[in-house]
Design brief:
- By secondary structure, the protein is α/β, with parallel strands linked by helices.
- The chain folds into 3 domains: 7-116, Tetrapyrrole methylase, N-terminal domain (Cobalt-precorrin-4 Transmethylase, domain 1, 3-Layer(aba) Sandwich), CATH 3.40.1010.10; 119-226, Methyltransferase, Cobalt-precorrin-4 Transmethylase, Domain 2; 234-284.
- It contains 11 helices and 10 strands.
- It has helices at residues 23-31, 40-49, 64-76, 97-105, 118-126, 143-153, 169-180, 204-213, 234-249, 254-265, 269-284, and strands at residues 7-11, 34-37, 56-58, 80-84, 109-113, 133-138, 159-165, 185-190, 198-203, 221-226.
- β6 (133-138), α6 (143-153) and β7 form a beta-alpha-beta unit.
- The longest helix has 16 residues, at 234-249.
- Bound molecules: S-adenosylmethionine.
- The site of S-adenosylmethionine (SAM) has 24 residues, from α5, β7, β8 and β10.
């Protein structure tokens, strides 16, 4: 590495309204030697609006593996590079992970220039609990895989945040109703910061029906948020624990004990299995 190592700036850009970019982000983009952009033509429009003429190179999901080596070499020789994506924060359902990982491994200073992110933007206006949430990004496009993923998430108690393409929104909401039940609160945050910004909140069935009957709700870009499952009742959790202890003492395998305890107490299978595994592991530990 040269004695003057470079810097990799990870710069957030607008998710719709081009004015949503920080003064610092603009200064960095104007000042660096090179901007690595997901789609150089798309980003030129943003940079053009602010009179920024910095050289652009493409870094997208199809060339990231190959392009990272060259970029890290530039950084090691003192280059100052900014990473941007088409919209929002790079790496958040966007390219850049390999570049950031390799730059860090090479000891390069990686500096964030924070700004818009559709998930956070949607959470900030949804009116769902935000003290804990999970970002699930895009669900699988195929229905069978999507349903399987949603089944795993059904007992998640934190607010769930999904990115979803408009053309799949109706099918996705139908699958959500099946996996999560009809009554969970849900929010569809569409075209945030743009002309047709819409934030709809309802229970899952009502939202699914609205999207199925109003094609406009499938246009543009959307974040879908769903309220988490109710917290498990602590009395039920305690009975599950006691029952698992008895069943494990009787010599039942963890999976069988968990299945019975989940059925008897109505607790989620995942939670009960995790508890059974933990109790089994503790009982196996040597005393002292
Ligand atoms: N990196 C971006 C971020 O920080 O949010 C996300 C990029 S991901 C490829 C694009 C997805 O983000 C869209 O399909 C949509 O789910 C969501 N999204 C992006 N812009 C949005 C907007 N203005 N309103 C609602 N959702 C948006």
């Amino acid at each position: 590495m040269s004695n003057k190592a470079g810097v990799l700036y990870v710069v957030a850009t607008p998710i719709g309204n081009l004015a949503d970019i920080s003064q610092r982000a603009l200064e960095i983009l104007a000042d660096v030697d090179l901007i690595a952009a997901e789609d150089t033509r798309h980003s030129r429009r943003l940079l053009g609006r602010y009179g920024i003429a910095t050289r652009l190179v493409a870094l997208h999901e199809h060339n990231e593996r190959g392009a990272v080596g060259g970029l890290v070499e530039k950084l090691e020789h003192g280059g100052r590079v900014a990473l941007i994506s088409d919209a929002g924060t790079p790496l958040i359902s966007d390219p850049g992970f390999r570049l950031v990982r390799e730059a860090r491994r090479a000891g390069i200073n990686v500096v964030p220039a924070p700004g818009p992110c559709a998930a956070i933007c949607a959470l900030s206006v949804a009116g769902l609990p935000t003290d804990r949430f999970v970002f699930e990004g895009f669900l699988p496009a195929r229905s069978a895989a999507r349903r399987a993923r949603l089944q795993v998430l059904a007992s998640e108690t934190r607010t769930l945040v999904f990115y979803e393409a408009g053309r799949r929104m109706a099918a996705c909401l139908d699958d959500l109703c099946v996996a999560f039940g009809d009554e969970r609160p849900a929010v569809l945050a569409r075209e945030l910061t743009k002309l047709h910004e819409t934030v709809l909140d309802a229970d899952l069935t009502t939202l699914a029906r609205r999207v199925a009957t109003d094609p406009e709700q499938c246009l543009g870009e959307s974040v879908l948020l769903v309220g988490g499952a109710p917290e498990p009742d602590s009395a039920d959790a305690e009975s599950a624990r006691q029952l698992i202890e008895v069943l494990l003492d009787e010599g039942l395998p963890v999976s069988r004990a968990a299945a019975i305890a989940a059925r008897v107490t109505g607790q989620s299978k995942r939670a009960v299995y995790a508890l059974a595994q933990a109790l089994h592991d503790t009982s196996e530990m040597p005393p002292g």
